[in-house]
Structures are given as C-alpha cells and as structure tokens.
Amino acid sequence: MHIHKDFFAGARGSLPILIGVVPFAMISGVAAVSVGMTFFETMGMSVLVFAGASQLAIFQLMSVGSPWLIMVLTAWVINLRFTMYSATLAPYMQKLSTWRKALLAYMLSDQAFGVSLSHFVATREEVSHRWFYFGSAATIWGAWQISAAIGAWLGALVPASWGFDFAFPLSFMALMFAALRDRPTVIAALAGGLIAVLAKGLPYNIGLVLATFLGIASGYLAESLQMREATQ
Amino acid sequence: MSQSSLWLLFLVVGLGTFLQRFIFIYLFGKIEMPDWLRRALRFVPAAALAALVFPALTHPAGHLDISTWNFRLLAGLGGALVAWKSRNVMLTILVGMILLWALEAAFGV
C-alpha cells in the first residue's frame, strides 16, 4: 500500500492540537485508574470507546455508583455530536470501500474533525481530502492512546485521598465553556445544568439524561425565537 | 462493578459511539440528516456537560449544599472563572484542585 503525501500533511497539521490532546488523554488515564480500573481495562476502554468526554462522564458516574444503563445512555448522549461530524465529513469519504469508511469513522475525533474541515474548505482536490483526514485522525488517535497509557501508569501513583474525582467536573467545565459560542448555547447550558440540579433526586440518576434533553430543547427554542426575531 | 459488566459497558458504549461516527458517512446519498436534527445536535455539548458539572458542585455529598462550607462549590466557581477565561482543561483542573486542597487545609475539619 502506498501512502499519499497528504497523509503526512494531515499528520503535520495535527501537531499543534496535540498540545490539548496529550494532557486530556493523560487525565483520562489517571481518572480511569482512580475509579479502580486496571491498566488493561483502561486501555481496553480507551481503544474501544476512544471518546474522552464520555469516558470521563462514565468515571464520574462510576464514582457515585450509578446504574449501568445510565452510564451507557449518558455516554451515547455526549457522543451524539459525532453524528453531526459524520454528516459533515461524509461527502469527502465517498469512493472508498465500506471497510475503509468504517476505519476512518472509528478514528473520528473532535480534533481530527476540526483540523480536517478547516483544511477541506481551503482545498478542492478530492483525493487529498481523505488522506489528509486519515493522517490527522491517525496521528491524534496514536497520541491519545500513548498518552492515556502514560496517564494510567501515572494514575497508580496518585493517592485516593487527593480527591482526584473533583477533576471530572473541572474538566467538563473547561469543555463546557469552549462549547458556549452564542446566546442559545449559553441558554442550553444553563437549562441543562439547573434542571440537572433540580432533578438530582430522581432515581437511577435519570435526571442527567432528562436535563440534557431539556437543555438541548431550550437552546433549540432560543435559537428559533432568535431566528424569528431576525426575520421580522 | 464486575469484570464482565465492565467490559460489556466498554463494548456497548464503544459500538454505539462507532455507529454515531459511521452512520452518515455510510448512509451518504441515501439519507440526509434532517435540518432540525443538525440544529439540535449543536446544543449537545453545552447541555450535557453542564448537566454533569452543576450537580457535582451543588451535591458533593449526594444532597443539596449551597453554603460556604461546600468547598467543591467554591473551588468549582474559581475553576469556572479559569475555564471561562482560558478554555484550557489542564489549567482549570490545576487551579480547581489547588483551590479545593487549600480550602480543605485552611478550613477543613
């Protein structure tokens, strides 16, 4: 198999963003060990799931003893954003066999999406699109796995008395602020957060999933009202 | 959590997440993502992450505690300020954890 030159362009284009990927992956490794997972389990999860925010959410739910189904639902809801990336990248991934599409889809990350899309809007050559994306996604995937392994190894050295579980809400906070782009997203976050507080007493931690959907609905509604005002 | 249910959790979450990544790449040309869904998905990160953050600060021990003795709430508000200004995960964790440790060392019982 020959490797197209744009694979390396994608890899190079992803180097700056590794500054964010490496520490976040290490945190996920430390966090996994802090909730009692072994090195092997940590890496198994990291390879099978490969979605940092949802993995951290699972750890937080594990640390408060949430039911299995709530962990699954929460992780899926957090990862819903990938369907949007999937739809956006789809036109660039055609003319490939289903297996290759599956491989490229598996490696999809927030960072690979961001790096690739900004490259795609700048070039029109079709072959290079998927090679560039492949180079970017593979680089980020590799850096993530190596960093998660280092984190899992370091995590064994962190005593439980340090209260490291507090790092979960703190990391979500940084990711949340990065997601606040305009007034409707702020409304989605405020509604989701406040409803989660009010619904905290509901059984099985179901309030989390409920709050997320109501938060999404609030943002959607706010945006609809904004659009209606703009057209009047 | 038992070994088997842990690995089943990884498999089920992993498979679902893979399908979310794959679905529209696979269905391209057959099914388009409806416009309302695309609009709604934009709000997923903000709503889901806030729903995880808020209760972790207001219910640190499982019950509502909005007082100055809730060190996680105080440290979390400090962390929020850093998150807002920097949007940096590492820096937010660092400042938030140091605030929590400092509060516990100074006022903890």
Describe, in plain words, how this protein is organized in 3D.
- The complex is a heterodimer of chains A (232) and B (109).
- Chain A is 75% helix and 0% strand.
- Chain A has helices at 5-14, 18-34, 39-48, 52-63, 68-78, 81-89, 98-106, 110-120, 126-155, 167-179, 183-198, 206-231.
- With 232 residues, chain A is mainly α.
- The mean pLDDT of chain A is 90.
- The termini of chain A are far apart.
- Chain B is mostly helical.
- Helices cover 74% and strands 0% of the residues of chain B.
- Chain B has five helices and no strands.
- Chain B has helices spanning 3-26, 35-41, 44-58, 71-86, 89-107.
- In chain B, helix 4 (71-86) packs antiparallel against helix 5.
- The longest helix of chain B has 24 residues, at 3-26.
- The relative contact order of chain B is 0.06.
Radius of gyration of chain A: 19 Å
* Gyration radius from CA atoms of chain B, angstroms: 20 Å
Distance between the termini of chain B: 32 Å
Q: How helical, in percent, are the residues of chain A?
A: over 70%
Silhouette of chain A: globular
Average pLDDT metric of chain A: 90
Instruction: Please tell me what the overall shape of chain B is.
Output: elongated
Order of helices and strands of chain B: HHHHH
- Given the helix and strand composition of chain B, which structural class is it? mainly alpha
The count of helical stretches of chain A stands at: 12
Would you report the number of β strands of chain A?
0
State the end-to-end distance of chain A. 57 Å
Mean pLDDT across all amino acids of chain B? 91
